[in-house]
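Human: Not sure, check this?
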Amino acid sequence: MDKLELLAWEKKCIQEEAPECTASCPLHVDARQFLREMARGDGAAAFKVLAKTMPFPGLLGRICEHPCELRCKRGEAGEAIAIGALERACVTHFGGPGRVMPLPRKDQRIAVLGAGLAGLTAAYDLLRKGLRVTLITAESELGGRLREFSEERLPRAVRDEELAVLTALKLDMRLGEQLDAGTFESLCNEFDALFVDRDALADAVLPLDLDEGRLIAVHPQSGATGRAGVFAGGGSALTGDFAPVIECFEGRRGALSIERCLQQAQMEAGREQDGPYQTKLFTSLDGIAPSSQVKSTGDIYNLAEAQQEAQRCIQCECMECVKVCLFLERYQGYPRQYARKVFNNERVIFGAPRSANQFIASCSNCGLCETVCPNDFHLGELCLQARREMVAAKLMPASFHEFALQDLAHAGSEAFALSRHQSGHSESAWLYFPSCQLCATASGEVLSSYRFLQKKLVGGVGILLGCCGAPAYWAGREELFREQLAQLRDQWQQLGRPKLITGCVTCQSLFAERLPELEATSLWTLLEEIGLPQQVLQASGREVAVADPCMSRNLSEVQNSVRRIARSLGMAVVELAQSGEKAECCGYGGLMFNANSKLVAAVVEHRVGNPQPQATKPFSPPKGWQRSKLQEGKDTAYYQNEVKDRDYLAYCAMCRDNLAGGGKRVSHLLEHLFPSMADADPAARGWISWSARRDCRARVKNIILRELGETPFQPEVDMHLQMSDEVRRRIDARRILDEDLRQTIAAAEASGRRLVHEEGFFRTFQQLGNVTFWVDYAPTEAGYRVHDAFSHRMKIVGVKS
């Protein structure tokens, strides 16, 4: 990814866009941060927020006309936050002159004509930039229309104290000096640039062009006049009501333009967001209850009232993707930051630590972020692109995806792969592709469904066993993925290009994207069309929550068919908080299960309604972000009311198995349509190990071969293993297969290379490929009992004597 591509990705994420209150403020005061500090009761910190952007904060904070309130998002659900009143309370209770640090003086000299608020702001900003500034006014004191405010609204002592900062910054003041055309010409020759306060010099006749309102005409973006080096601003009171914050903005605009003028820089470049502008930030108001402003018991808010009013702020932000994706939340950022993380990771010098590798490999690539993002940011595509580039550069750690790729290889091996016409047919009108994972977990149901399709469909139903190549796709192994698709396409063509039926939405989605000529049909929509089998497992009144797989989010027709079928079986279907197009991943997608086991545990616990924050690193929100009380309340309701007490109905094999592994009562729709026993409870079936999955695949293939009159495939298994369920679960979580155990034990028995544990069993190791396996075992009359096993990727080379 190059720099321009990074910028394009970053631009899609709008989280860092300003909230409405800041975007509508001419000075861009960070009202969100100000309100956050006020809500915490830290008035001193809140005042620092104001002082960071406002000139003369103790003054402006009392008289600002607060245009921010007109666009406050809170106002769309009740009344807007009383930002103006809160600013007055803050500067009253916590204001005061701050420490002034004059900069070393530069040689350029600037004249500011007029001592109104625009001129004073221009002088203040220019002084802080280190320029030599002379303020010239016909009046005997500073302030202009500021002196018209009442003593209650703006006490004279406060005004004088705030403006005293100009003296501290070494402002040269020439008070009581009349200005006319001749004086103006002299000043233009004497100074390097001028700023004219249109409000304070309303009656002066200067040789500058006027606009239709008889004010000095200025460029709307820069404040430049028709005279080179002369800028102007202010004058709001001459065309309407006096607007202090507009006066300050136009003074600041002039100061910035003077600085650029002196530097001979482009005057308008990069100033599109000077002053009020339209922000791109999206803030959802879903579930925000209307509320009214807190009423003050006095002239201004007391501290308790101010804190209560500030707490009404909803802290506008987007974070829509982070709210719904545990992967994004746990990495404590948002897509704009993640894009930068991916970009930086690609540029780490070869051999240095690549800290973002696991992040890149942990995304499920499910597309939920794109679905909820107002700007369609698909982080999965970015991570997938990064995986491909890392694979091409040979920098992808093998541990992230190796086991999944080995499972892909098994699905394409002689142990499972098969393509045949229906028994007694020389051609096929239909081709059943149940998927490698469905065959691995529901072998009996797959066989029953295949027999049913053979009876119901005309023209012959062939069988195609294998994998769609999803593991290679998710691993960024594009060449391997294309080879897998090419092999499937060849088999499909050899069988006469029949209509494809698939029982997996992942297969269906990938085929639609990369092999559209197959025109894959979902098993569920087809069954709804041709009719269900007679011996289904009825579930009268049973309430189930349909767990939509993430890859079905764009397959609404399939989702609807599943629900209609479930209702026809007597089930009462309820919807989860995230279903349909907002379906969550179960932890298998994108090979998350292979790259980040702790994150997968958290994902499963979340989906089954039993969240365990300690399962992975606790969430620490990005700077400035807080999970709202509303969202926390939604989570509580989701866990307690929608998830915990309901069975799930899945139609993805991996969803079914992962959720069952997390302790959830969940069944697969195929188990209800083609039950192995009439009184069975499919939801009671637990997890299935990776070794058992391979056995199930082999069973599907061999039974089909027998029904075709062919010889079944018989793998050589000459060693019986015994282990407790606890041990089985532990080593399965470590992705250790029975075949790995058998090879390691066989090598030890043949060579005698083993250690004797004090408890009487043996410990041995064997390197198989990139992995070294360790097994604790003991011989028995029936074979071998496995006590434990683990693996690592370090090579044991021994010690030379």
Notes: The chain has 34 helices and 19 strands. Residues 244-263 form the longest helix (20 residues).
